[in-house]
Every structure is written in C-alpha cells, then in structure tokens.
Amino acid sequence: MKAFNSMTKFGAGLILATLGAFAGTNAQAAGGHGCGTYTQTDGTEVTLECSKAPIDLTNKASLQRGAAMFMNYCVGCHSAQYVRHSRIAQDLDIPPELVEKYLMVTTKSIGDHVTAQINPEVQGEWFGAAPPDLSLETRLRGDDWVYTYLLSFYEDPSRPWGSNNLVLANAAMPHVLYNLQNELGKAEYEKRVGDLVNYMAWMAEPVRHDRKIYGAFVIIFLLILLIPVYLLNKEFWKDVK
Ligand code: HEC
C-alpha cells in the first residue's frame, strides 16, 4: 500500500511537471500580451485583439525574405545589436557573399553586429522617442503584438508623419511600409509582414526551434525513465509491510 502511495505521488509529480513544461512553452509561444485598446471616432472604446503571427522558424525562405525586409526597411533607424551578420548567413542558409552584398547595409565586416544607420539617440531628439534596439523585441512584446503593431498603422493628418498606430497610440515611428502596403495589396502585404516578424522571432531567439525539439526529447526520456524507476520502486518496497 505504501509503495502504491509513493508511486502515485511520484507519478502525479511527473505528470504535473510535464504539463507544466508544456503550458510554459505555450504561454511563451502565445506571448501573453494584449494589443491594447483604442477609442473610435464616436467615442466607444474598442479592445484590439492581437492577430496571430505566422511564426515558423523551419521556413528558411520566409526567414530570408524577412531578413531582406528588415535590412531594407528597419535598420535605417533600428539596431539589432545582439545579431551578427555572419550568424544570419549561417543560420538562414544565405551565402556570405550575398549577405555582404545585399544585407550588410550599415557595416563593413560580416562579423559586425547589426547597427542602425542613424544613431538612435540622435533620432530620439528628432522624433521625440528613440527607436529601440529590435534584437529581443518579439520576446519583450510577443510575436503577435509586433505583427499586429506593424499591421495597425493608419493615416492621421494630426501626427507629424501623417500616420498613427492603433496598438501604440501616437507612435513616433512613421508608417515605413506604406508604399509596400499600397503596392502589394492586403493579403500579400500581410504575408510579407509575417515573414518580417518570423525573422524578428528568429533574431530574438535563434535556438527557439531546437529548444522545443530538445524539450520534447527530454520529456519522452523522462517518461521512458519512469518504467525502470517504477519497477525499481516496486522491488524496493516489496518486502516492507
Ligand atoms: C524612420 C525611423 C524608423 C524606421 C525606418 C523604423 N522604425 Fe520602428 N520605431 C521608430 C521609432 C522612433 C520608434 C519609437 C516609437 C515610440 O515609442 O513612439 C519605433 C518603434 C518600433 C516598435 C515598437 C517598439 C516598442 O516596443 O515600443 C517596433 C516593433 C518597431 N519600431 C519595428 C520596426 C520595424 C519592423 C521596422 C522596419 C519595417 C521599423 N520599425 C522601421 C522609428 C523607425
């Protein structure tokens, strides 16, 4: 009976730990961030649901398109100081020559980190808010927040740039993808922004995909380990009455 009790406790503990591990992964994947509220012209307050970002770190083509977008549209103002160009070449399967030719917009050496073209501090004085470093942005705000933010610019003549944002009210950032949005149309534009956020998610945690695989292996290993541990436990308690 005693053996049975301790075994049940052990089993329950392991199951709880497993569930906890999965819940943790999911909570992180979901980001757990809302996308804020905004007031409509008629005065009603609307809660903005985050749109789901299409994150798939195994999709190299999407990551490559995202990297190109990031380098073309974002590093003018934002840095990504924890990311080296050489790591982009390696992880995203882009030949280093191509990275040097097309993606190294702000530095000379492929070992350099991704810096902003214009010093963010100086920009802070110009725009009223300095563009933050984006290396870890999707971990700070959540993938879905960043995706929704980038899709939520709208025209607002009262703002210095003529644009505003539903997620980050009175954002100091202009709608830098305005032309692209008009050029591509809604569906294709959302896909491209999805690639961009996918790339940003890779940047924030390059090992995220591997981590999930290792996590699954560890849990499978623990479950298999449960069998000999259970048998041992039975053996040890066999003679104790
Ligand atoms: C002209 C300069 C400029 C460019 C180009 C630019 N940004 Fe920004 N961005 C800013 C500024 C300034 C802020 C700060 C906004 C604020 O706090 O009001 C900002 C804020 C942000 C934020 C929100 C940060 C936070 O957590 O509050 C994200 C996300 C972001 N930018 C992503 C991007 C991406 C992705 C691109 C490329 C498509 C881009 N930005 C291009 C100037 C720029």
Strand content: 5-15%
- Helix percentage range: 55-70%
Uncertain runs are 25-32
Across the major sheet, the strand order is 1-2
Secondary-structure element sequence?
A: HEEHEHHEHHHEEHHH
Q: Which geometry do the CA atoms define?
A: extended
Mean pLDDT: 89
Q: Count the E strands.
A: 6
* Estimated structural class: mainly alpha
| Biggest sheet record | 2 strands, antiparallel
- The number of helical runs is 10
**Which molecules are bound besides the chains?**
heme C
Please tell me about this protein's structure.
- Helix 1 packs antiparallel against helix 10 (208-237), helix 2 crosses helix 9 (186-204) and helix 8 packs across helix 9.
- The model is unreliable at 25-32 (pLDDT under 50).
- It is built from ten helices and six strands.
- The protein is extended, with a radius of gyration of 24 Å.
- A two-stranded antiparallel sheet has the order 1-2. It has a two-stranded antiparallel sheet with strand order 3-4. The chain has a two-stranded antiparallel ribbon with strand order 5-6.
- With 241 residues, it is mostly helical.
- Residues 73-74, 76-78, 127, 129, 131-132, 134, 137, 141, 146, 149-150, 168, 171-174, 176-177, 196 line the site of heme C.
